[in-house]
Amino acid sequence: MGTIKKIRKPKPWKHSQPLTKSQLMQMRDEFWDTAPHYGGRKEIWDALRAAAEADLNLARAIVDSAGVIIQNPDLTICYDERGAKYELPKYVLSEPTNLIQDN
């Protein structure tokens, strides 16, 4: 498994229904609150969250310093040094193309 040096945002994607920014933020918060329960180490989940919320250059530095092994350049699949798998949904990494204004 080679390491990928470039991190990029996921390709444009569409949610099953149009979402508002506040709905998207709520989905993200729920994911990050429950993510450590899927296994893996809390500090890796924390680093992935910081990387997901950072610009791409900072994200690279965060995952490198945490020892995260990136399988997909958009961070949807990563591993830690012990081989635990971390899967991130696209909605925590970028906004859908069908994002709508909050009322």
TrEMBL record:
Top-rank taxon: Eukaryota
Matches recorded under InterPro entries: DC-UbP/UBTD2_N, DC-UbP/UBTD2_N_sf, UBTD1/2
Pfam families in the record: UBD
Residue ranges of every copy of the DC-UbP/UBTD2 N-terminal domain listed in the record: 5-102
Protein name, UniProt field: DC-UbP/UBTD2 N-terminal domain-containing protein
Organism: Trapa natans
Organism lineage string: Eukaryota, Viridiplantae, Streptophyta, Embryophyta, Tracheophyta
